[in-house]
Specification:
Elements (H helix, E strand, L loop, with lengths): L1 H10 L1 H21 L2 E3 L1 H9 L3 E5 L3 H5 L7 E2 L19 E5 L6 H10 L3 E5 L2 H7 L7
Parallel strand pairs: 1-5, 2-3, 2-4, 4-5
């Protein structure tokens, strides 16, 4: 199987090259859709300067097991119906946090489309934990 792939790639190197470039461009485009990604340091700086609000989109039980101080819990499936609650934070950056960063981009994109300034914590709560930052229960 691998020998066939290598033979194909060798015989059609231009086609394989174009495919690789298109794949990279698609990944870059998809990653950019969900707003900008923030590091834990950038999140902390925004919140400390009172310019950011953390929105934790994990399920209630995950949020209860440990969340970033001051984070509001709005489960991902409820964000659309609860956007009205976020209007008072429209002047700030809404920082979307999930478990490992897999769902925050979709939520960010929806909030940006609704007129909010939104960003996502790169890597979610797992990055927060790996940086040895505190979680509260």
């Amino acid at each position: 199987m691998l020998a066939h792939f290598i033979e194909f790639a060798t015989n059609h190197y231009l086609l394989v090259g174009v495919f690789a470039v298109l794949l990279v461009l698609l990944l870059v485009l998809e990653m950019g859709k969900g707003g900008r990604s923030l590091s834990t340091r950038e999140l902390t700086a925004l919140v400390n300067a009172d310019q950011g609000v953390v929105i934790d989109i994990r399920a209630k039980k995950d949020y209860s097991s440990g969340h970033i101080v001051g984070a509001l819990n709005i489960p991902q499936e409820k964000v659309a119906e609860r956007m009205g609650e976020l209007e008072k934070h429209k002047a700030k950056t809404l920082i979307i946090v999930d478990s490992i960063g897999q769902h925050s981009g979709t939520t960010c994109a929806a909030l940006i489309k609704a007129g909010f300034n939104a960003a996502k914590l790169s890597g979610g709560v797992s990055t927060w934990r790996s940086d040895n930052l505190p979680l509260v229960k």
